[in-house]
């Protein structure tokens, strides 16, 4: 049964996947396992607990239950499925005692970013979790990889938080679920209610002046394009497709120091990362190839949604697992970039700290980036990119055309924000079962929790040259990852820019 047509964001994401311009997105969380389930001999109970928590999460979020039809047409549709084969969606990876757990996690993460999903005609949803486990270790890694037309990264964050809530709410050992027979989950016969695309819920008003400007930028001949802020230094190349992925972690004390500095300077982590990236790109690229820059900040539109419809299993609009993203461009002009370059050390390749002069420039740029984000939020859905996208009729052709043009953005920041790794704080009203059978409000030793998270994207061929994807866990620190297409960006450049960001964040944290 057809449930509804794809929305604008869903068609855009699917077109990139079909053209092999984008493959997968991943959000990985490290779970602390309750002691009763950690021993190797409890393997069956652990696997059962995970399976049931996944089932409960699937039932809360209908986008995890649906397939699609007419995927390659101009108007794909979501369809209701009778059942899910959970072996397609839950994979266990058990590693030996002598294997390096962290190395296995990073390798698996990298491989899955570039994996294709099973053929779209198999009528199974495009997402899976991989659970990485080692012996009796009191931790496990839960890696969610998904096809972006199903949901966005905020949807993935909700998945992980709700999955954690389900693990903690499961009655001890009570693992029967309606419709679950072995690894086959029979879905309800009533059609599921899907989250509605934003363009069907809200007006997305576009001013004529804004639309004309966007239209001119899209249709003007290349010889008339004199915009030196575009990323002409990095031509769009689409093959061979391979993602380069790097990540670093920052402990909670350092993160708190950085957040204090951001507040003091009236900016945010997103603003700061735009500022740090500008200095890094300015130092590693010559003014002849990159006299100015553009970057993009990815933004979540859930704050603009009306209340969730009555009976929606996800209850609140901000907890909808669906696609509600937009982007905001930033421009850094030749005068600003020249001024930053004039303050760089003579040999910037050696990895230097930021001078006091450069730090002043950094905070000015970071504040400006934040102000632009605030202005965008204040404008609501007026002159939003998704509103412009309403005029696109053939997404595959549009994405083919974009891949033939000059790249617009040198970098992009998609900040997933803070993940709640201890649902007892968010859901303090729930009661949990203790192993002895008595109800208890707080049995923290037997609760599941998340200690860290890592967020990453596969290379987005026509998008920014390098994409930065930070995520933090409340009270536990932050991970900053970066990806770039191997065929378009020099590995040395990507690694140097990431090394700069890591070093400068550590410097700022230590100064604070």
What can you tell me about this protein's structure?
With about 500 residues, the chain is of the alpha+beta class. The chain is about 35% helix and about 20% strand. It is built from 14 helices and 20 strands. The strands form 5 sheets. Strands 11, 12, 13, 14, 15, 19 and 20 form a 7-stranded mixed sheet that branches.
Write down the overall mean pLDDT: 92
- The 3D shape can be described as globular
Q: Which structural class best describes the helix and strand composition?
A: alpha+beta
Distance between the termini: 58 Å
User: Main sheet, how many strands, which sense, barrel?
Assistant: 7 strands, mixed
According to DSSP, the number of beta strands is 20
Separate helix tally = 14
The value of Rg in angstroms is 23 Å
Helix content: 25-40%
Oligomer: single chain
Return residue spans where pLDDT drops below 50 for at least 5 consecutive residues. 425-442
> How much β-strand is present in the residues?
15-25%
Question: How is the secondary structure organized here?
Answer:
Layout: E1 2-5, H1 8-18, E2 25-32, H2 43-60, E3 67-69, E4 77-79, E5 83-85, E6 90-95, H3 101-114, E7 127-134, E8 139-146, H4 153-169, E9 180-181, E10 184-186, H5 198-201, H6 208-219, E11 243-250, H7 252-264, H8 269-284, E12 293-300, E13 325-332, H9 334-342, H10 356-378, H11 385-389, H12 395-402, E14 411-413, E15 418-419, H13 423-426, E16 432-433, E17 439-440, E18 449-457, E19 466-473, E20 477-485, H14 491-511
Parallel strand pairs: 6-7, 12-14, 14-19, 15-19
Antiparallel strand pairs: 1-4, 2-8, 2-18, 3-4, 5-10, 7-8, 9-10, 11-20, 12-13, 16-17, 19-20
């Amino acid at each position: 049964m057809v449930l509804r047509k794809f929305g604008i964001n869903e068609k855009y994401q699917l077109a990139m996947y079909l053209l092999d311009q984008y493959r997968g997105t991943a959000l990985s969380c490290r779970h602390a396992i309750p002691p009763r389930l950690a021993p190797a001999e409890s393997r069956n109970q652990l696997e059962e607990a995970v399976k049931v928590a996944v089932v409960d999460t699937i039932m809360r979020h209908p986008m995890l239950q649906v397939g699609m039809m007419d995927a390659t047409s101009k108007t794909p549709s979501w369809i209701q499925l009778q059942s899910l084969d959970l072996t397609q969606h839950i994979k266990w990876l058990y590693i030996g005692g002598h294997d390096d757990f962290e190395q296995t996690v990073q390798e698996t993460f990298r491989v899955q970013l570039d994996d294709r999903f099973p053929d779209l005609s198999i009528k199974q949803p495009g997402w899976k979790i991989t659970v990485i486990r080692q012996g009796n270790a009191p931790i496990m890694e839960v890696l969610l990889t998904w096809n972006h037309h199903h949901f966005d990264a905020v949807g993935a964050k909700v998945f992980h938080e709700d999955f954690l809530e389900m693990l903690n709410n499961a009655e001890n050992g009570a693992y029967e679920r309606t419709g679950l027979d072995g690894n086959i989950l029979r879905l309800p016969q009533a059609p599921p209610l899907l989250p509605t695309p934003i363009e069907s819920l809200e007006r997305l008003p576009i001013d004529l002046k804004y639309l004309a400007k966007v239209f001119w930028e899209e249709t003007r001949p290349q010889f008339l394009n004199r915009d030196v802020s575009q990323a002409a230094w990095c031509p769009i190349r689409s093959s061979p497709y391979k993602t380069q992925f790097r990540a670093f972690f920052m402990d909670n004390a350092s993160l708190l120091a950085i957040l204090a500095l951001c507040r003091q300077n009236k900016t945010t982590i997103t603003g700061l990362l735009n500022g740090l990236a500008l200095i890094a790109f300015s130092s590693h690229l010559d003014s002849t190839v990159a006299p100015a820059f553009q970057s993009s900040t990815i933004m979540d539109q859930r704050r603009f949604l009306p209340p969730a419809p009555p009976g929606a299993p996800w209850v609140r609009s901000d907890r909808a697992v669906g696609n509600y993203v937009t982007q905001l461009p930033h421009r850094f002009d030749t005068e600003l970039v020249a001024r930053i370059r004039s303050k760089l050390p003579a040999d910037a390749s050696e990895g230097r700290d930021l001078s006091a002069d450069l730090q002043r420039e950094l905070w000015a740029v970071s504040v400006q980036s934040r102000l632009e984000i605030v202005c965008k939020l204040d404008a609501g859905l007026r002159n939003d990119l998704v509103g412009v996208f309403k005029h696109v009729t053939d997404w595959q052709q549009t994405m083919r055309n974009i891949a033939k043009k000059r790249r617009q953005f040198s970098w992009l920041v998609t900040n997933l924000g803070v993940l709640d790794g201890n649902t007892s704080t968010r859901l303090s009203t729930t009661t949990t079962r203790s192993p002895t059978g008595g109800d208890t409000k707080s049995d923290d030793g037997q609760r599941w929790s998340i200690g860290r998270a890592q967020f990453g994207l596969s290379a987005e061929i026509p998008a920014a040259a390098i994409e930065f994807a930070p995520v933090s866990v409340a009270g536990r620190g932050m991970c900053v990852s970066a990806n770039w297409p191997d065929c378009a960006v020099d590995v040395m450049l990507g690694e140097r820019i990431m090394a700069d960001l890591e070093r400068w964040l550590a410097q700022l944290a230590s100064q604070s």
